[in-house]
TrEMBL record:
PROSITE patterns: MYOSIN_MOTOR (PS51456). The keyword Nucleotide-binding applies. This is Methyl-CpG binding domain protein 3b. Keywords: Actin-binding, ATP-binding, Motor protein, Myosin, Nucleotide-binding. Belongs to the TRAFAC class myosin-kinesin ATPase superfamily. Myosin family. SMART domains: MYSc.
Length: 256
């Protein structure tokens, strides 16, 4: 629903060259057609008029919703609201995961966190996604239970270079291996990931955020037995970005 007017004191977001978005407060009433709004940045820092090119600056969510674990529960869902909520959860709640409906948003901490052990897997096993804090295990658990009861499931892991897609896939397979009782028997995650160096030799390239970034998509298919245990896996590659592979390294494979 379009906002027709706002009264003095309303909280909004305004673009910033350094922080991308900063919170501010309206110091005068706003009505459609106004070419400028008078804003004061949070903390009482700067007071200045801002040109309004087409519409009102994005509205800020109430303080009570800060750190919300599901973005879809926010009153206003736009770029500054999403970025701010993820920042609050990361810095104040030490949480890298946030739900957005059935989608899980992950912030790469570029560090190893003690939140992927078997005790954490046990805590998420059999639990509904809404009952516990957002986690990659909650997504994996929901897919596993639905697969057992109904039919095949797919988990799509996407993101930009260096966002942690490969690691997320590893933790997902770790969950399946543990709940399927196959950690010691098959080591499926180790077997699948052990093939990475071969593929990296023909499909990886350096980017500004990742020295060893995959330039191809991977489809990993895991087979389960009737009791829910892992019985095998295979991996296909697609969408090789040949233009971003600068040279090729040949790998010799020996079998003994």
């Amino acid at each position: 629903m379009a906002v027709k007017c706002l009264i003095k004191g309303a909280s909004v977001w305004t673009p910033d060259p350094d922080a991308v978005w900063v919170s501010a407060q309206l110091l005068q009433d706003y009505t459609p057609g106004d070419k400028h709004v008078l804003l004061q940045l949070s903390g009482g820092k700067t007071l200045y008029p801002v040109e309004v090119p087409s519409d009102l600056p994005p509205l800020a969510n109430p303080d009570i919703s800060e750190g919300e674990n599901d973005l879809s529960a926010l009153s206003f869902l736009h770029e500054p609201a999403i970025l701010h909520n993820l920042r609050v959860r990361f810095l104040d709640y030490n949480s890298i995961y946030t739900h957005c409906g059935i989608v899980l948003v992950a912030v790469n901490p570029y560090d190893e966190l003690p939140i992927y052990g078997e005790e954490v897997i046990d805590a998420y096993s059999g639990q509904d996604m809404a009952d516990l804090e957002p986690h990659i295990f909650s997504v994996a658990g929901n897919a596993y239970r639905t697969m057992i009861r109904l039919n095949n499931q797919s988990i799509i892991i996407s993101g930009e270079s260096g966002s942690g897609k490969t690691v997320s896939a590893k933790f997902t397979m770790r969950y399946f291996a543990v709940v399927g009782g196959a950690t010691q028997q098959t080591k499926v995650e180790d077997k699948v990931l052990a093939s990475n160096p071969i593929m990296e030799a023909i499909g990886n390239a350096k980017t500004t955020r990742n020295d060893n970034s995959s330039r191809f998509g991977k489809y990993i298919q895991i087979g389960f037995g009737r009791r829910g245990d892992i019985i095998g896996a295979n991996m296909n590659t697609y969408l090789l970005e040949k233009s971003r592979v600068v040279f090729q390294v040949f790998v010799a494979i020996f079998s003994f």
